[in-house]
Design goal:
Length: 243
């Protein structure tokens, strides 16, 4: 039985000079997969940065499985099982696909053989087994993305955060990525948060969704309900097509 997870964001506040990037944001994500959407500059990446520890919230809490993580430095959060992918994937060009995944397990317990087996297994899951020995530099955009997903899944993750994972992908690639994200919880037990502008992907994979606009929370709840909210539609007017 996989333990249910909870990420409780409580009164998170971030200012950059005169810009209020996150204005006392609260939302408790309890589904295996949650979404964060909103127009450009809404504060989505900043919220992931607060959770992973790259940006500091002025007050507030982020509670993951009962622990307030905001007092933990980023490396401790990573050790707790927080994983993060960035708008631009962090794949080392001079390492092979296999090595890119294996390095995630460097500071973990376990025998070298067990670590290699786990990296191999996750490459198989994302469909990159036959590309394992290719250097990062030679990968296509989609293969880089898949490598990133494999990196996030190794080492017993608790919370995986993807920042625009479908950026630059075709419709078919986005669908395949959606299938992978849908499988993460059963495979690893981790909860996942996904930021994306692709509303079709969000509505397919995210049970609950937070909508930000200019640093404010304008909706949070079951994804279909949130997407039908007139406030959400208004926030996207002129910037996105939202069905
Ligand atoms: N390090 C920073 N210094 C100053 N301002 C910043 C910084 N990071 C973000 N901002 C500002 O904070 C606001 C929120 O930015 P953020 O990157 O979180 O938006 P986003 O929702 O991820 O947008 P996008 O969809 O374009 O990725 C924007 O006004 C942005 O310019
Ligand atoms: Mg962003």
């Amino acid at each position: 039985m996989i333990a249910p997870h909870k990420v409780e964001i409580d009164q998170v506040l971030v200012r950059f000079g005169g810009v209020v990037a996150l204005n006392a944001i609260s939302a408790a994500f309890t589904a295996p997969i949650g979404g964060i959407i909103g127009p450009n500059g809404a504060g989505k990446t900043t919220l992931m940065n607060v959770i992973s520890g790259f940006v500091t919230s002025k007050g507030g809490r982020v509670v993951v499985d009962g622990q307030d993580i905001l007092t933990h430095p980023p490396h401790k959060r990573a050790h707790m099982g927080l994983r993060r992918s960035f708008q631009k994937e962090q794949i080392a060009d001079d390492l092979t696909v296999f090595e890119n995944v294996l390095v995630q397990l460097d500071h973990r317990l376990g025998s070298p053989a067990a670590k290699r087996a786990e990296a191999e297994r996750m490459l198989e899951v994302v469909g990159l087994s036959d590309r394992a020995d290719i250097p990062g530099a030679l990968l296509s955009g989609f293969e880089r993305r898949l490598t990133d997903v494999a990196r996030c899944m190794v080492g017993n993750p608790k919370l995986i955060m993807f920042d625009e994972p479908a950026g630059g992908l075709s419709v078919e690639e986005t669908h395949a990525l959606g299938d992978l994200i849908l499988g993460i919880h059963a495979l690893t037990g981790a909860q996942t948060l996904v930021i994306d502008h692709d509303v079709e992907l969000i509505s397919r994979v995210c049970t609950e969704t937070l909508v930000l606009d200019f640093g404010r929370r304008i909706a949070f709840g079951p994804t279909a309900q949130v997407l039908a909210d007139p406030k959400v539609k208004a926030a996207y007017l002129g910037t996105e097509d939202i069905a």
